[in-house]
Amino acid sequence: MNTVAIDIGTYSLKAVAAKKKKDTLEITRVVEVPNYLGVSIPTDDASKEKLAQQIENMFTDNAFPKESVRLALPESVVSTKVIQVPMLTDAELASAIGWQAEQFIPIPKEELSLEYQVLFRPEKNDRDTPMRVLLIGVKRTIVEHYVSVFSLLGIEPQFLETQTVSLLRAIHSNIQDPATLVANIGFSSLDISIARAGELSFVFAHPQGGMLLTRAIENTLSLPVQQAEEYKRTYGLDPQYFEGKVQMALIPVVKSLIDQIQKAIHYYSTQYPQESVQRVFFTGGTAHLPGLVSYAASALGIEVSVISPFSGLQGQFPETNQAAYSVCVGLLNRDGN
After folding, report:
1. Which of 70, 80, 165, 291 is in the most buried spot, having the most CB atoms within 10 Å?
2. pLDDT reading at 96 higher than 60
3. The model's pTM
């Protein structure tokens, strides 16, 4: 039976269906449809019903099963922190984690849904090196609103995790990997994470994404929003079109996005002075903006590329805009429930 991974963005709904085939995944269906509601987590009944109807139509049109569905929460509604604590046993950590969350997660404990994971635990005889623990907090009501949309369709998700966790799984990190920054540029947000050898070190969500690029073209060239979106996707930072006007409209916003990435790189260097970020991966729909990779590489002075989430997988998948499905592929690559 196929497993279906769903990523709900403010611009579109993305779904990837796959089945296990020996030691890899076989992709059987890749779908992207517009999100006419324009929000990823509705909070009122009318909006929930509208989003549920869009999802229902996507499932019906593509014959997706409802028995094996995986979901991701947008990083914009999540508080993700990597903390260091003294060496503790599992039982001691379980007792202390609530107090740790109060210090690092800006959500009242009565409203908090919290998960944690030990990223690194030193050897028992090493009492000086601290443990590293991943904290993921979200308001309980947010989870309830999100899951209730699928409940309307009779869908009980296998699991729910954050987009950042899914993305790190999608880039196939291994023990030799250098410090890597992943910039997930969606329509309404920029989510930045830094990992080394697959271990998450830093997460930052910024409310700035591809929508601002579209608006910049719309306002500068006095174009309808849909035409501005098409110009962005087609011409991007290429200076040869329209006397470079599209490029010039986009440059200030792109520079602002790069500035956020530079700040994250600088922060990482202050926390880990013996290391430095060696490469940047772009993902999300805006990652394919023409000219973005070369512009960013020049500005940052390090290797920059776009994630290829379907690399090494079997089946049929799109030749273009692959990075938009990275979250879905990461969800599918998770073992078990």
Report:
1. 165
2. yes
3. 0.92
